[in-house]
Amino acid sequence: MNGLLTAALALGIGAAAIALMGQSPVEAYVELLKGAFVGKFNLGGTLEKFVPLLLTALAFAVASKASVFNVGVEGELYLGAMAAAWVALSVKSVPAPIHLILCFGAAVLAGGLWAAIPGALKAHYGVNEVCVTILANYVAIFFTSYLVNYPLSSGLGAPQTTPVPDHLMLSRIMPPSMANSGLFIALAILVGTYWVVHKSTLGYRLRAVGENRHYAEHVGIDAKATMIWAMVASGAFGGIAGAIQVLGVFGCFVDNFSPGLAFDGMLASLIARNDIRLIPILSFFLAALKAGALGMERFTGVPKALVDTVIALFILLASMEGLFKFKMGSRPARRG
Amino acid sequence: MSQSPMEPIVLMKDIVKDFPGVRAVDGGFFDLMPGEAHALIGENGAGKSTLMKILYGVYQPDSGVITVKGETFPHQSPGEAISRGIGMVHQEFMLVQQLTVLENVILGFEPRVGMGKIDFKAAEERISAIMDGYGLKVDLRKKVNDISVGEAQRVEIVKALYRGADVLILDEPTAVLTPQEAEGLFQVIRSLTSLGKSVIFISHKLNEVMEVASRVTVMRQGRHIGTVEKSATSIPELARLMVGRDVFLGVQRSGSAKAGDVALEVRDIYVPSSTEHSKIRGVSFQVRRSEILGIAGVDGNGQSELAEAIAGLRPVERGQVIIDGVQVQNLTPLQVRQAGLAHIPEDRNTRGLNRTMTVKENLAGLAFRKPPISKGLAIVGGALKEFAERLISAFDVRPPLADAPVTGFSGGNAQKIVVAREVDSNPKVLLACQPTRGVDIGSIENIRKELVKVRDRGTAIVLISADLEEILSLSDRIAVMYEGRITGIIDADEADEERLGLLMTGGAVNG
Known about the structure:
The structure holds two protein chains of two kinds. By secondary structure, chain A is mostly helical. Chain A folds into two domains: 1-23 and 305-331, no CATH class; 41-300, ABC transporter involved in vitamin B12 uptake, BtuC, CATH 1.10.3470. Chain A contains 14 helices and no strands. In chain A, helix 5 (96-125) packs antiparallel against helix 6 (129-149) and helix 7 packs across helix 8. The interface between A and B is medium-sized, with 19 and 28 residues.
């Protein structure tokens, strides 16, 4: 409920900004909606953006449940994408389904192990994971950049690998858009994550550690191991998101392919307060805004950067916990 | 400032102070003569610190009058207290770590020259004069970060004197000091009093009190028990006054079961605290099945560290902890529990409960690992609820809502959740730490009955409590801790106020 009010307020302020630019807010938002939802190409574009947002948001949320703040999902996404591309290109003569599983397995491993490092440093030595993961992003991104420019370069002008075999590509579900069956993988992970966090003993440990580490230790839960495993899961989700970008969208590893996908995912998770049930809704909302922004820019004079402004406002307003509570609670308080 | 030497410089009469649920000070009385060192002693929660915080203006009394230097008023603010010449050194030092000693001393009372510029030179001269006069040497240019605890305490004293204090309140000043530093502090107190300052010395260490004080006021349960001349009293008498006979008279002993084999043995263990090595030095004891060993003592003498070391939450430097024949020192908390320990921790809000989780999730904190609550990785919702409801009714948790978050529960009912979870694990050894602290009277009775029931079922119980009445009414034997050691273990039947008082205050070491 508060989320809806917050979204409306952010869009309202955005509308005021559009009006100040001398454009019609109604027209701009209509084009935004059209750009996000009308026609297979547009709706597909929204779904295509939704998949990595959802997965990286879940990645951030899972680690946050153990109160580890994984700002390194972007790096894990790159490493997962690279691992998937490498396995797709270098493993030969295996049946396609197994080959596909190997690709995703490699992405899970690359993202998970990479994330385990800051997790272990945090759990055992109290090293601030935010610092480590931010720095690890640069290492991961530049490392993939090196690989794609030198040893794994296709040899063509663009810094990208040779295309992966066609039989490994995830099927397109809404041509001509690039929406692909990665969507179903992401939805399956969403459902699985919800079950694990809220209905399983693993989730009980995870939440116990995140909410009160002293309590967790007292009842005999290994807080350090739990934190590290939460990071591994988080990194694995990031890796899977990267693999889907390679096998579902680009068909090869492209240098610098992500415009901060994982950071948008992190924002979705933050706005949802890491609530697994709200994460798909917010991820979808952000994906629609991002996808619709192109249409808006194309058909009105409003630049698509405005959407980023609206998203930033949304986060700002969402983080003001008492914004609407205060308005509603203040009147009786004043009377008394 | 001219007053006859026989007039008290401070007089507090009929002071009453209520906190929600407790009367911390009830008819408080205190008088302080110019130039004397006056000790204020009592157990935990006797109201010593509260009474002195009222004098310093931190708390406003509900009734009573305070007279300082002939001026009488119902209460004052800390600012007024300072301007009337009262200074206080708290247990927690109020210093800015990043500033120098000089800057800390003058903070808020800076001498100025010209356009609001601080006159550091004048400040330094004045502070040096104070330091030289009372033998309080500290390097003025060092950052507080870089000085020792003893030096930081001297800075606090200098700060109070710099602000013009004639009356210095020292709240348990030796608790943080090494014996050598404490000796240095006593020198300072002597030079202060010899130069006409008055010192109030809050403590529960009787040998120190006998060393520095000229008079001693004893408080118990918020009341003024008596004020005696040092020359006319002795450590045993003070111990008796402090602990009081009424505690022993009111106690209904729980009656003992027949004690069985040794279930827990602690053998000569050394345990660090968070700030020092070997806070516990060479503690040994045994507890048998169907026996309650009470561990008494003034808070902070190593009881918390002992409990955490047994439970696997704190490393053991050396020595052994043996549960039912198995060595468990330095194992993980889970391994210690598997050896047969259950632990009611002293702080239910940080360790005992996960406040954001529901009642049923907290109750299942141990049982969630096994069927019927879990099947494979899955938690079986129905079984969890059933389990929680069984414990809720068995332990009378109110309101009986398994799905409610624990946050809203009162202290007593929250504690019943902890007790239920730990007792239900069917332990060989139950470590119960301050099990009824901050708990309402109804729940206290409930929890104590439960402990007796558990003992009669054959469990060995270690009961660590600062509440002497609790120790006396439940224990079969009583061990007393003082400064990281056990000063004595006595049968509950033989416990009397003098023996316990002496053991609790380290007096026995001298006697």
